[in-house]
Amino acid sequence: MSQALTSAVTVLPGVGKVRAAAYARLGISTVEQLLYHFPRAYENRGNIVTLATAPEGEKCATVLTVATEPRVTMIRRGMSLLKFRAYDDSGTAEITYFNQDFLRKSFVLGATYRFYGKVERFAGGRVKQFTLSSPAAEPWDEEKPLPSLYPVYPLTEGLSQKQIAQNIAAAMALTAENRGDVLPDDIRRDMGLSTLSYALRHIHTPADLPSLAIAKRRLIFDEFFRFSLGTAIMAKQARVACAVPCTAGDLSDFYRALPYRLTDAQQRVIGDIRRDMASEIPMRRIIVGDVGCGKTVCAAAAMLIAVQSGRQAMLMAPTEILARQHAADLSETFAPMGLRVALLIGATPASQKKAIYEALASPDPARRIDMVVGTHALLTEGVTLAAPGLVITDEQHRFGAGQRAALAEKNRDMHMLVMSATPIPRTMALMLYGDLDLSRIDEMPPGRQRVDTFTVGESYRERLQAFIRKQVAEGGQVYVVCPAIEERECEPGEVTLEELFSPDAASDTPPLKAAVTYAAELKEVLPELADRIAFLHGGMKSREKDDIMHRFAEGELKILVSTTVIEVGVNVPNACLMIVENAERFGLSQLHQLRGRVGRGKRKSYCVLVSDARGETARKRLETMRTTYDGYRIAEEDLALRGPGDFFRVGTGQTIRQSGGIRFRLADLCDENDGDLMTHAATAARTLLNQDPNLTEHPDLRRTVEDLFCVDSGTLS
Ligand code: ADP
Ligand code: MG
After folding, report:
1. Which of 118, 146, 174 finishes a domain?
2. CA 458/CA 510 separation, integer angstroms
3. Fewer CB within 10 Å of terminal CB in the chain, N or C?
4. What's the CA-to-centroid distance between 375 and ligand 2, angstroms?
């Protein structure tokens, strides 16, 4: 390992205490860190325009000849102005620099320079047609072309572009001899990647765009490669034999009690789980599969395996409604088998909570609660299990990556299962779930029908009401989803109170259907069903929500008007019509989730998206919903139409970019080419780790991995 790389930036000429402190503010203390301080952009000074054709308000390059002797005048005390004229074939510009007298000697009358800066025009001037203030300037020589791409670095107070560029050039020279390429040569060649030296040189001072692209590709690969190595090593490390093997599990009674046969995919997943749980090495597995593919039953099987092995199981859901439903379903299945299932949520009365805590921690297996279902309250409250076995999180995408990490940390010795219906692109899956083994349910239960989807406007209102009446008359049930009204934080696709009460504030957005008014309206137009319509929203008391959900599930209520609180997970097989009001307000993946609430039983089901939005994007998005049923394709479409911003909000508002504290400097996770590189990097990492599991033979590489994960050396062992 080269000494020069790890030495402090102060070894570089011109870097003293003050500048080192400025660098420290950028998180840079060593020469190597400086080399990895990449430009955030590049100025293209190679594209030379004339003064007359200079674009408005944009920096550009001009080649001008100095026409007047540069003069310095004092304009105020302590303020000087350096001024001269320069021309090209198209006109003359006045060039000014404030407080930079020293530049006077740099400009020679009659000599030619390349200037880079904003060219401003003067409408009425005769001689002074254009001005350029404080442009960058370099002597111009036809024979010796100047580089065209100039790096633009992220700055901090006390550092200029020029200083950084100079220091980096010095750092490059200092380390040129032994910069060492941490990427094994065979991998580099197989992947057709440049050397590290080439990449560093051209990322800072690219010869041209193709060289920059080559440099970037290499450095992006490095980021992914190190990320993959790090996650793989950490995942393995988490897998020390510290869990209690759950080897029991005669699931035949359970299977017999199911009203259906498991699909092959479900059986395969349960097989994966069974194998994982039989080990002392804790399971870390994620089940992904489109809405309605039947993940819950796999979770239930896993819980049963744990309990039959004398352990306890915990199931965490993102909403209270879903937690309640899971608890009810599990009780129904497992209570007859003599198992004890409890629900623990924020709303659980204190006395009951206390009893649950005690029963969970009870040393006496006869008194012990076997399965507990809840929201993240399970994480934060005083839950101690007497015989920890399995922890499951449902609809993982609703929790933050951080919450999962906390969960894994808190329950290091438990088997862990994660379920997610969010179809995310491959690269994302690797980033988010790289530390988990993956089981995919790629098959829908048989007889699953396609939910016919329509998009209609306000003018269809009457016909829609008739359709609701018909569905209910035939014994079906109906969901109506309106944008949220009372949730404190606005989800994408939801609205603020303010917007709601001044619906016409933005004239191109159609008025919002408030869930409250909607329910009232519906009762008026469907008087015969008035007492079969209920209204549900996030701000209601849990007991009320619970009661309404229960009455809807039992079929007593026919129409449920709600905000997106029903978005995830709930299961009412008799529901056959999903109406989404102001559908343009919802993300595609959200709409897909909503649509997944119907078509779960035998009834022919429909999804009606109501929207009067006329915008091009809105139209395209709704069209996608009408024609696409594959959650993964919808997610990709969503990504393409909305951009990654919303899509990658990971629960707590953190984005994937920051997930787990990893920051990618160059890689763009939404870029398809980068996605391919990521996959290759992951494969290469796996191959290397097979040969050298702890990177003992690649100490420099190992160190860079530790750097990326901001961990101290030794942590990854
Ligand atoms: P998700 O994967 O979205 O969580 P669920 O587990 O809620 O889906 O299952 C959706 C519906 O499919 C439920 O009504 C469930 O009972 C039913 N189901 C699950 N597996 C099968 C199967 N193999 N055959 C028929 N229906 C099934
Ligand atoms: Mg589910």
Report:
1. 146
2. 9
3. C
4. 14
Query: Per-residue DSSP letters for 16-67?
Result: -HHHHHHHHHTT--BHHHHHT---SEEEE-SSB--TTTPPTTSEEEEEEEE-
Q: Where are the alpha helices (DSSP H) in 286-395?
A: 296-308, 320-334, 350-361, 377-380
Overall pTM > 0.90:
no
Low-confidence ranges of the chain (pLDDT < 50): 1, 486-511, 643-662, 711-717
CA distance 376 to 380: 7
- Let me know if residue 57 belongs to a domain: yes
Q: Is 580 exposed, middle or buried (0-12, 13-18, 19+ CB in 10 A)?
A: buried
Mutate which of 251, 293, 448, 597 for ligand 1 pocket (most atoms within 8 A of beta carbon):
293
The CATH number of residue 274's host domain is: 3.40.50.300
Q: How far apart are CA 483 and CA 492, in angstroms?
A: 10
Residues touching ligand 1 (Cβ under 6 Å) are 260-263, 266, 289, 291-297, 421, 445, 571, 573, 600
Nearest CA among 606, 396, 642, 594 for reference residue 484: 594
Report CA Rg, the chain. Answer: 32
Whose alpha carbon is nearest atom 5 of ligand 1? 294
Q: Which atom of ligand 1 is nearest to the CA of 295?
A: 2
Number of domain units in the chain? 3
For tokens 């915990």, name the residue.
314
How far apart (Å, rounded) are the C-alpha atoms in residues 113 and 65? 6
Mutate to test the pocket of ligand 1, among 268, 270, 296, 567 (most ligand atoms within 8 A of CB): 296
The phi and psi torsions of 683 (rounded to 5 degrees) equal -65, -45
705 found inside a domain = no
Cβ < 5 A residues, ion ligand 2: 569
Element (H, E) at 681: helix 672-691
C-alpha closest to that of 171 among 204, 147, 138, 217? 204
In whole angstroms, give the CA distance from residue 394 to residue 451: 24
320 with 347: CB under 8 angstroms?
yes
Single out the residue of 607, 574, 610 nearest to residue 592, CA to CA: 607
- Taking the C-alpha atoms of residue 141 and residue 66, their distance in angstroms, rounded to an integer, is 14
The pLDDT value given to residue 324: 87
Q: Which domain holds residue 108?
A: 46-146
161 belongs to a structural domain: no
Give the nearest ligand 1 atom to 441 CA.
Answer: 2
Atom of ligand 1 nearest to the CA of 596: 3
The residues with which 341 forms a beta bridge, in sequence order, are 371
Q: What is the pLDDT of residues 524-583, one digit of tens each?
A: 989 998 899 988 877 777 778 778 888 898 899 999 998 765 555 578 889 999 999 988
Write down the pLDDT at residue 307.
Answer: 96
Query: Are residues 480 and 434 both part of a single domain?
Result: no
